[in-house]
Amino acid sequence: MLDKLIEWDERLFLHLNAYGIDWLDPIMFAITGTAIWIPMYLFIIYLTFKAYGKASIWILVGIGLAILLADQGTSGLMKPYFGRLRPCHDTRWEGQILNYRYCGGLYGFASSHASNAFAVATYFCLVFYKKIRGFGWLFLWAAIFSYTRIYLGVHYPGDVLIGALVGILSALIGFYLAIYLKNKINPKLYPN
């Protein structure tokens, strides 16, 4: 069964990666980077402080925990444990796939980009659920951000899907752990 899932994952990757467009390659490469998203992150931090004041410190602790769990869960644990080559490192696909500019580390299961993006999307949807509506767009951002990894030939769809699930779980853990720590340390100093 696992072999069949891997085969389907590889077929889907080859299908999705086959639609590279020359003018789109540098755009997808820019989207997959970090620097382009700094203004969005700063805006979210601004909204956090505007909505929560002093309690924002606990929100930042929580997102830090979520990203730490998401990133280390994929990069530190899963990639070395499973040892699944990235498509761009797999010699079976030489000359068959689009790989624009770089390949990254040897292993790709699961995607840290997807994990971190979905952790951010989930976490801030939880944070702003009662204060500010309309943060569901973060899931669209996370999906596009994650798809660039397939487009650029550095991850299989399964890598991205499992990375997204790890990110969502990490966000839930980070969110509820931050609430627990806030309430344990001094609930009156930082009200909800």
Structure characterization notes:
This is Phospholipid phosphatase. This protein is mostly helical and 192 residues long. It has a single domain (41-185), classed as Vanadium-containing Chloroperoxidase, domain 1. Helix content is 66%, strand content 0%. The radius of gyration is 18 Å and the shape is elongated. The N and C termini lie far apart (47 Å). 34% of the residues are buried. The model has no long low-confidence stretch (mean pLDDT 93).
List the helices and strands and how they pair.
Blueprint: H1 2-17, H2 25-31, H3 38-52, H4 56-82, H5 112-128, H6 137-151, H7 157-185
Domain Phosphatidic acid phosphatase type 2/haloperoxidase: 60-175
Transmembrane segments: 27-49, 56-74, 106-128, 135-154, 160-181
Keywords: Membrane, Transmembrane, Transmembrane helix
Q: Please give the domain count.
A: 1
CATH architecture, by name, is Up-down Bundle
Give the CATH superfamily: Phosphatidic acid phosphatase type 2/haloperoxidase
Low-confidence stretches: none
Bulk shape: elongated
Count the E strands: 0
> What distance lies between the first and last C-alpha atoms, to the nearest angstrom?
47 Å
Gyration radius over CA: 18 Å
H/I helix tally: 7
CATH fold-type name: Vanadium-containing Chloroperoxidase, domain 1
CATH class: Mainly Alpha
Structural class: mainly alpha
